[in-house]
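Materials and Methods. Structural model of DNA-binding protein. The 141-residue sequence of DNA-binding protein from Acidovorax temperans was retrieved and submitted for structure prediction as follows.
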Amino acid sequence: MDEKIEFTHRLRAAMVQAGYAVSPSVLEHEFNLRWYGQPISNQAAWGWLNSRSIPKQDKLQVLAEWLKIEPEVLRFGETVRKSVQEQRRRWEEGVGYLERETFDAFLQLPAPQRKLIREVILTFAKVHSPDSSAPADQAGD
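The predicted structure was written out as tokens:
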């Protein structure tokens, strides 16, 4: 699906959830009450509500604050946020003292050596991944 269409769906849903009618005039009025820059036009509000455009970050933050929704969720959706949180959780749970010590040492290496170490690690990861085509007797090594 197109990102403008998805944004429009999230904006419309947030307006309904917050108890507002989904209308360009309502959006224009409520946004301009909270925005300290140049007011948006009814056409700009219409564009946001009809998959024509996505507001810039500063305006998106005002919309999110007004509608009481996280700006990243309004802009990118709940799925993206959950994915980022899952990756962060996996990283935090999977990295202990030894790994952090290794990462610190790795970061102190010159770029050519970091590149070499990265290639070695990725090669090992590929060979030992569950979906690799390595023979069963090598998988346990």
